[in-house]
Amino acid sequence: MSGIPEPTRPTPRRARNTFAQAKESLAADDAISATSAPVAQQAGATPAPVAQQAAPAPKKRKVATTDILLSVSEELKERMVATLEHTRPRTGITSQQQFIRIAIEQLCKRLESDFNNGEAFPPPAQGVNL
């Protein structure tokens, strides 16, 4: 046996951060920042000047958009990435989001053309979950 210590392995990565996990982590950050300021004041210590943190720039969003969470198989994701990379110069599609938006739009147009005389389908009745 040698005296060389066994190297420590890195901790496994957490699962993907879903919208719910992101919301929880933001709430936890808010709770921590709310409780840390009164503790310093209660101790009678003069708080050290804190560098002003610039508010994060708001994300540029298209008007009237909504977020969706989309799960796809790894095989389909890899297929999309490969297709996107090989066709980028010819299609001008530069991101996975743009690819998905265009795919949804084209499929909707095709289905409307095939099944509704090219007109957009009306929204489903209230209470109908698709």
Automatic annotation (TrEMBL):
Start-end of Low complexity biased regions: 37-57
Alphabetical keyword list: Plasmid
Region spans: Disordered: 1-63
Entry protein name: Uncharacterized protein
Organism expressing this protein natively: Rhodococcus sp. NS1
